[in-house]
Amino acid sequence: MYTNSKLAKSVRLALAFGAASVTALSANTAFAQEGADDVEKIAVTGSRIQRANMVSSSPVTEITAEDIAISGITRIEDLLNDMPAIFASQTANTANGATGTATVDLRNLGAERTLVLINGRRMPSGSPIAGGIGADINQIPAAMVERVEVLTGGASATYGSDAIGGVVNFIMKDDFEGIDFDFQYSFYQHDNDNAYLQGVNAESGYNAPTDNVTDGNTRDFSVVIGSNTADGRGNVTMYATYRNIDEIRQGSRDYSNCALGGTPDDFFCSGSSTLPEGRITDFGLNAAEGLQGFDYIVQGDQFVDRNGLTYNYAPGNHFQRPDQRYTLGAFGHYEINEHADVYAEMMFMDDRSFAQIAPSGAFFVTSSLSCGNPLLSEQQFDAICGINGLTEDDFANVFIGRRNVEGAERSNDLRHTSYRGVMGIRGLINDNWSYDVFGNFSRVVLAEVYQNDLSTTRIGRAFDVVEDADGNPACRTALPDPVTGAPAVDPACVPWNVFRTGGVTQEALDYITLPLFATGETTSLQVGGFVTGDLTDAGFVVPGTSTGVNLVLGVERRTEKLVYSPDQGYQSGDGAGQGGPTASVSGDFDVEEIFGEALIPLVEGQAFAEQINLELAYRYSDYSTDKTTDTYKVGLDWNINDDVRFRSSFQRAVRAGNVRELFRPQTVGLFNLDTDPCAGTNPDFTEEQCARTGVTSAQYGNISANPAGQYNQLSGGNPDLEPEESDTVSFGLVLAPSAIPNLNIALDWFNIEVTDAISEVPPATILAKCAESGDAAFCSLINRGAAGDLWINNQSFIQSTDINIGFFETSGVDFDVSYEFGLADMGDLKLNLVGTYLTKWDQEPVPGEGVQDCAGVWDRGTCGPPTPELRYNVRASWVTPWDATITGTIRYIDEVTEAVFDGNNNRTDGETTLDSQAYFDLAATWNVLESTQLRLGINNVFDEEPPLLPDAPSGSANGNTFPHYDNLGRYIFMGVNVSF
């Protein structure tokens, strides 16, 4: 191994760069032998335990391999989501509607605004499907993680686009020697003893569970094998892991057995109006035409009044999706000489996840029915046709909602296979300069199979029934044209008899059932290189200091490509349960960049400052989309003495539009809205206001609301999007008082302001602004259906596509306190408090239309999932003298209030406040032998139920709650680690 004392000194100075210099540090620290202890120490850019966070100019939090082991969590995202600065997303809950990937969301700014790295190099987009664009940390095997460094806010100048919320950098083991085997078994346990909700279920005729359940079993195996070369100049570390997670259904918990409606003080079981009995209704269309309306269900061969009946779709839906994952890979490096150290990284993952969803059905996809349909009984004919003077030659205004309970539940089989390879060479140029050149290639392949959906086209044909030549019911499309004699359009069509209890045949099910398929892939190629140097010998030294300027200079080229190819059923929207057409997407872009960083010691060894360092960083990016960006950082680190340090920084970060945002076509999908304010017999909006949104006077008071709280939105990409910009300002105070050894305190204030954010005008805002002002800019985007609705079919929607209009601003205080002291003969006690107090989380959906205050609230529209003002974790670890460590942790989440915004963005409190939550975790490790460690733990020891809400917004919530909370009960784990 070669030595370089000047370079080691430079690296020690570069510590002040914090996370902003991880890549450069990793290059330099690999080369020094003398002073290796110092170099190893400074490679840690942030730690709650080792105090490295005390000497970075930007706040950095670290999760160590020990933290991962003591948590017992096998999904890395679950551990990260417990951190106060990170917010859980639906993908982390692996539930209904999830993408099958696991993403990280720093500061609640969105996973797409968090840059995720492995050893300082970018991870690719996790999936080509909507919602999966963030890096998929399923690719990260927990057994190989040395530590996780979390830098919140900025860092685009160092790492490039997407680091608006911050950076999560996974540092992997690459110098392991020996064999390490680890096995863990875990499960959830919950006592269903909520008498109130069990009664709510009983009132609706549902049987909620009342037993003590254990489920969601997880088995996790890993093996790590490493060896140094015979000459000691290299190492190869290999790994393989297997994880299998069992399903948990919502019907296994009494608080999620039905979809809740009402208010927390007066819950009732809500649900879908697409019923197993079949809902036959005109949705108010007849009243608008001066005819008699109706709303029926089927009993026997009769129509009877529905009387508000809904379908409980919740029990079969997943709370936790079954998942199976394999990973394997290798990390290696070999020093040819002091000028060339060759390294490589190879990673593979195959992850398969299944989502189970309530049975599909005819979701009111037809709007008329032939009065001459031979499947109608005489009573049924009179109830929908005769009452309005129609004959068998006429068609009636009829919408049919019929749940396919005779068929199987829908299943979405998502499989992601990823490949990642890195090749590089690094080394010394001379005593003052080193280099690192690398290539980083990643590819993620998607295979999706959506089973047991129904075809909208075939449903329409199966409802259009006539008599054939023998007087038997037959699809009109299965018969030759009676006038022209043209051949049958669809000879395979079989009537779907939903007008008689027990009338559905297997032949009909086989005909209307439609599987859907999609494939896709994302690829990323990053090629870059940089040099690092110490300019002390060149004379670039500030007078009064002994250490010169440190530099990092580099270039990079990155190519991103995404292809998503759904089948014709997906693209046409023919899948009745898919919520609208799913467009194919294909596009790519590349970016060429130059960047530089400088660390300038300004003051050394003075009475007012032991050391003051100035940090500068700049990056210029040129995109193939004809966009260019400039990002930069200015930081100041003022070390008064060993006890007191101040730090501050300003960072300009950017995020260029990703391939989906730039190139996806416009399609109709769903958005969450408590209710259409123009729906119901007593609409929230006046007749004049509703008229501005496209409601006729005849429709007013006769429009049906969607019981599921979902409405149609036309969304899509925009190739002319400008890059987002953000400014992050932080000021910090770090205390390590010598009078109290091992006490470390860090307080950091931050403010992040995002402008020109790639977003959409929320459909709810469009609706409210149109009703309020009649402005054509808003009203022209509203397309109501024939019944005045916004949800019955894909012809009714609110248009809301991606544009650069968004504004976000968040600020608050991060705090990190650690203290360690001895207990005489009883070992040591380690205490740690880490948290975030949020003072602001504002957003402006439409420029100039007012800011929405989202701090401490949740809503079903623009603020979205909970943004608690205070989150913190308190941990106490007792390191006993008996080779055992016992750890207790309290995780606290502050209460959040439901927010309701009017057309002017004035906020009032809604009816549902989600109470504060405190979870207690307990874990222990015991080194029973020198090579064997046992661990046992319980998270959420007291089995706290999550806070519940009615009409939970689809996509962000699941099972009447949000994934921010422990929603499955106690988590119990036990594991063994054996090392050789």
Structure description:
By secondary structure, this protein is mainly beta. It folds into two domains: 5-254 and 318-357 and 413-451 and 518-663 and 718-762 and 800-979, TonB-dependent receptor, beta-barrel domain (Maltoporin, Chain A, Beta Barrel); 260-313 and 358-412 and 452-517, no CATH class. It is built from 16 helices and 48 strands. The chain has a 22-stranded antiparallel beta barrel, surrounded by five helices. Strands 1-4-5-2-3 form a five-stranded mixed β-sheet. The protein has a five-stranded antiparallel β-sheet with strand order 14-13-12-21-18. A hairpin with a 4-residue loop joins strand 29 and strand 30. The protein starts with a helix and ends with a strand. Residues 1-55 have low confidence and may be disordered.
- Alpha-carbon distance between the two ends: 26 Å
* CATH topology tier name of the largest domain: Maltoporin, Chain A
- Main sheet characteristics: 22 strands, antiparallel, barrel
Number of strands: 48
- Average pLDDT, all residues: 88
Give the class from helix and strand content and strand pairing.
mainly beta
Give the overall shape: elongated
Which CATH-level-2 architecture of the largest domain? Answer: Beta Barrel
- CATH level-4 homologous superfamily of the largest domain: TonB-dependent receptor, beta-barrel domain
pLDDT under 50 segments (min length 5)?
1-55
In CATH, what is the class of the largest domain?
Mainly Beta
Oligomeric nature of the chains: single chain
Helix content: 10-25%
Radius of gyration from the alpha-carbon trace, in angstroms? 31 Å
Instruction: Tell me the strand percentage band.
Output: 35-45%
In total, the number of domains comes to 2
Number of helices: 16
